[in-house]
Amino acid sequence: MSLILLKRLVLFLSALLQVLGLILIGYGILLLYTGNTYSGGLVIIIGFVIMIMAIFGFKAVMSGAPIRILVYVVAVVLLILTQVVFLVIVSHGIKDGISGIISDGFERLWEVERNKSGALAYYENWLHCCGVNSSEDYWIIHHAIPSSCCLDNKCVDQSSVYKAGCKAAFTEYFDDKFLVFKIVCWLLVIGEAVGAVLCCLLYSNLKNET
């Protein structure tokens, strides 16, 4: 593989890693918004570290200095190991933590709903759900099913009432978002591994030229 082609491939991967790092930062902000401060902060930090590493790799390749490229390879290998450990440990922690937050949040909303109708209306309209667990929640507290529980806000009959509870609907929504996080993380690991191999080849070629 030619030296010019190697440089172009590494530069392309560096740009791609910067984009994925930005996506990871965005996901971390989402975690902060949902109340998971610790996990959200960690994800944002990793996103920033990845972006900084990608920029450093870009500059190292542009400089053509073998020692800088070697330092970048070592740093990337350490970063990959850190990410794999983080992904294995935190993936379960984030999901379990968020599940608890979702459950507590909807239980608090339901307490409000008992005293003042409309507390769940936003989620019912957004997620096409009804009550915390199902529409039967309203029958239990002797409240009429609100229009937000029905298709087009029109409760014509039982068939027009949304079947899913809002807690389950929101959990499913978050699971989809969590899947994006895992995909981005594994893409980062794969991209970094490929980049490290290419940088090793680049380092070898540059050393042979000197």
UniProtKB/TrEMBL annotation:
Gene3D superfamilies (alphabetical): Tetraspanin
Superkingdom to which the source organism belongs: Eukaryota
GO cellular component assignments: plasma membrane
Subcellular location: Membrane
Disulfide linkage: 129-166, 130-150
InterPro entries in UniProt: Tetraspanin/Peripherin (IPR018499), Tetraspanin_animals (IPR000301), Tetraspanin_EC2_sf (IPR008952)
Keywords of this entry: Disulfide bond, Membrane, Transmembrane, Transmembrane helix
Membrane topology: Multi-pass membrane protein
Transmembrane parts of this sequence: 9-32, 38-58, 70-90, 179-203
PANTHER family reported for this sequence: RE08073P-RELATED, TETRASPANIN
Family the UniProt entry places it in: Belongs to the tetraspanin (TM4SF) family.
The protein, known as: Tetraspanin
Gene: LOC108080698
